[in-house]
Amino acid sequence: MSAVTTRSGATVPTKRTFSFGRWFHATGWRHLVGLVLIVFSLFPLLYVLSASLNPVGSLTGSNALFSNIGFGAYERLFNDPSQPFGAWFINTMVIAFVTAVLTVFMGALAAYSFSRMRFAGRRFGLMTIVLVQMFPQLLAVVAIFLLMNTISDWFPAIGINTHIGVIMVYLGGALGVNTYLMYGFFNTVPKDIDEAAKIDGASHARIFFTIILRLVAPILAVVGLLSFITTTNEFVVASIVLIDPEKQTLAVGLYKLISNPNYADWGAFSAGAIIAALPVTILFLFLQKYIVGGLTAGAVK
Amino acid sequence: MTVKSRSILAAGAIATTAVLGLVGCSGGSGADDSGDTTKLTVWVDAERVDALKGVAASYKEKTGITVDLVSKANADIKDDFTQQAPTGKGPDIVMGAHDWLGELVSNGIVAPIELADKQDEFLEVAYEAATYEGQQYLLPYGVENIALLRNADLVPNPVATYDQMIAAGTFVVESDGQGLANPYHLYPFQTSFGAPVFGSDDEGYDTSDLQIGSDGGYAFADWLATQGKNGTGVIDTELTGDIAKEQFTSGAAAFWLTGPWNVGAAMEAGINVAVDVIPTPGPEAAQPFAGVKGFLLNEQSKNKVAANDFLVNYLGTVEVQNALFDSGNVLPALTESAEYASSDPIVAGFRAVGAEAVPMPASPAMGAVWEFWGQAEGAILNGDDPTTTWEKLVADIQAALDK
Amino acid sequence: MTPTNTDPEVVVSPRQKKAARLAEAASGGLKIILLKIVLLGIVDAIAVYALFVLVLKDEWLVAAIVAVVTLVVNWIYFSHRAIPAKYLTPGLIFLLIFQVFVIAYTGYIGFTNYGTGHNSDKDQAVQALMSSARERVPDSVTYRVTVVESLEGLGLLVTDPDGEVSVGTATSPLTEVDNAEIDSNVAVSVPGYTSLSFQDVLQRQGEVFDLEVPVSDDPNDGVLRTGDGSSANIYLSSLIYDEQADTMTDAETGVVYSDSGTGAFTSESGEELLPGWRITVGFDNFARAFGEESIRGPLINVTIWTIMFALLSVASTFLLGMFLAIVFNDKRMKGRKFYRIIMILPYAFPAFLSALVWAGMLNERFGFVNEVLFGGADIPWLTDPVLAKISILVVNLWLGFPYMFLVATGALQSISDDVVEAATVDGAKPWQVFRLIKLPLVLVTMAPILISSFAFNFNNFNLIYMLTGGGPRDTSAGINVGATDILISMVYKVAFTGQFRDYGLASAFTIIIFILVAVIAVVSFRKTKMLEDLN
């Protein structure tokens, strides 16, 4: 950082020359924090990257990172017919995307009613949806299998071994703490916006779909991203419901590579995990402008 | 009253849509095709699916029965089977290890398999392992045990005793880390002091006869203390499987006590691997545990005749076990196929060690042993008093068994 | 009302307003109503189809529930009341089926003896006992058989190793025949019986598998059974099941095992035959949960650590996440996008993989941290009780701060710049702005996240299990429990040690833990309600 470009790009010579002290005080120290954080965040992941390139295929056996470089693990990942990595990837994206969108939609609907309407059982309801998610899931597999199995008996199209089935189970959590988070954010949108729209004759649905949703875009993006990441990494439900390898998700498929300690292929697993983390990163890039774009200025006219 | 008329209109519209939708749905629901073909569903460890694909295809050719291989994560296969078998939704056949038998039989979810006079065609250890309380439940297909891998470039000739070995080069054996030893890998040393876990009678293991606390057990504990932190430091609780692998494949270690599953990695790393008998620190023979892999029949299966035919008359034949060996490289359980596989010096080496191997106890009582075993061995390695630690181990196991 | 010639902006009559509103509703409303009709139509079509299927399968109760729910949904979306319900229903339906049911069912398991040895119902237990009790007569030969059928039902055409041929059915014992057709030393058919091909056998597998042909009139000679339709052996059963009396009798010792209500056939002396079956056992599991000697000892310490771990994890991740959100929320700073991406990565990777990597890095003698960062020191990161706790917290901070960072970044957006600017103009320092304005506002939005994060960490089984396995072990305790064990991991060890899996006990514990967490959460909510009312 040796020069400061003025935002307007004007040719007017500025009197203030660049001063390191001032720069540091304003933004420089932030870069320092950033650097420390990069080291903290990335360090363990370098291990994963190194393992994915290491032909021996051990995860933490060596501290000599990147001592051997080879792309064998990536080749194994893509060329083994019994591990349809491409199918896992697509399945995961589809399931995670659909789940995230529907979760945001249903959650926002509920958050709107909690935030803008007063009805009996509102407090209790708010508390309950959060409490329900606090249930320790250690044994949930037994009940989930039984439930999905029963659904399968009646409607095979949405039961065991279907993507719709998995998505439905995930949507059970659509009304949860994320709804509460959105509710908190909805509350910060001034009520007089609704009132003004009501006076203009807009119905509650119209206010919600055309005005409110735009104003709360940051939190919708955050919840969408959280839901997407959670779904991508979810393992237990996916492994119970999805049986055919072609239908499985990345988490389940990759886990199979290392579930037997004697035959664990950490190289391929690490390679898969790195590739699996890419969509999340790209999605975050894409959503960032919504998350930090700030409120639509001048909503209150 | 606009509202009313609108509602009626809407209701009409909904009914129409519903009917149309229903027609669409009913068109889509195909009839349940109860075809003439029998289908066997077989759950298989993910890393074994490839080896079985050819076998499944040729069986279909022979009998017309489709074998549907479902790849499952090795860590979940037993629990998933236990949960799903009673619902009638489980697989017909599941791949499993013989030491699951205690639990699966107690749950009543596996049916006996009749090997009848074929039993003599299997390796003795495989047949023993397939039998639980006098009944056979497992069609064995592979036998695994650990042996000593030697880097022949570093140490050209086999060593006779444990002390010679650690003098000749670096020896690694994996532990569980975090202060825990790995009893499975240390078991050959323990048995060389004449201290098996349980005594045995002609029915197999006698779980009421805890041998771990015999004099040999204490001798083993004393020896273990000399190999830990306060002794040679050769056996290290923090040396995990990953690290052991790294040490041997990089050429830092000359000896590695491990199973056939790691030979591939060592060879790929360019190590000149030789397989030796496990050198003993104690007076008796080192008896590693043998793990027998095989197939189990679901008690709730609707296709028991087909499943039996597939297991006994097909998977139990020499051609198939040879083919499985060719694609999977595990020592076959059938004696004739084991001979065939022994042309490979690595397999022959493991088999030679396996001649002394004993099946891992399948009784649920074994759970009580595993619970305390590695912890006690780790504590001794890290400097606790061997006698008192071992005493406590025996007492803890006994208390858990008596529960 | 007479229209006035004044400025129309000043006075708008109510009627005009109403007219305008009607026009408005009509134009935009018609599309919405059409959409609503189509959507509801689809829902109803699916419901009707579902009813159709359920009625065909005789599932009347479920069908009734579906019908009622469908009617309620239709009423909700057509009535002009129940506006909140319009917004809550979609999520609520999923919540009830996939969360509330799962919780209720787990609760129910807590009142049963479900676990190893009691895994299914009584019929299956009887079936399994009988099938394990069938023992091949020692040293008896294997016979080659052909499955045949006569008016009596299925039978076996048997060729013994000497070439003698006999035939029998379930009701008539084996009798020798000499007019059978032999093909490669095996009798394949005999007059009076139809032979079944292998495909025919497969079509009737169940019957064939269960077929027992008595060897002679004396039941003690055993029965002939075939497993694969081509070979048969002689079996005797070591158990005799008396359906009338509902007892099992050991054929050798004569001991009678009866169903005494304990979920297994039990002898006079209390010996049980396994497998048993699932029964409800009332509050037995809860009594055991509170009475289990081995648990009571370490329980206090484990509970304290669980609460500490959850609290410290929430506090540390929140503080770091919040701090970073503010640091990187400065519009003047370049490269914010890049930093943010890097910080999301720990959260984007599968947590258990990260936990394993950390376990390797923290290895006492070979780990990167000791070997490289500390120049070969032997710091027992995971094997010393105190350090292991610290390590757990650091790793959890690494795993959890991106989440908090994301949420805090979102929450910061709800603070309008005007407020901050106004405060700055009034001469507030950045720290004061943060402490007095930003933090309270963000806390209001994030309070539920913090509470649920607490609950999540309270039950963060995976991290503990992957990183330390609960260790280092407390060697003085009678069970496998360690310094970093939290309640849920301790329960897991108690209920699932070795080969005995006790789902009933584990479920009872789960319910107890849930109640504990719920109480803490409800109390916290009451506290945050005050925060909310400030808003």
Automatic annotation (TrEMBL), chain B:
GO biological process, one term: maltodextrin transmembrane transport
MF-aspect GO terms: carbohydrate transmembrane transporter activity; maltose binding
A Gene Ontology cellular-component term: ATP-binding cassette (ABC) transporter complex, substrate-binding subunit-containing
Cited InterPro entries: Maltose/Cyclodextrin-bd, SBP
Family per similarity comment: Belongs to the bacterial solute-binding protein 1 family.
Signal peptide: 1-31
Naturally occurring in which organism (per UniProt): Homoserinimonas hongtaonis
Keywords: Signal, Sugar transport, Transport
Protein name: Maltose ABC transporter substrate-binding protein
PROSITE patterns: PROKAR_LIPOPROTEIN (PS51257)
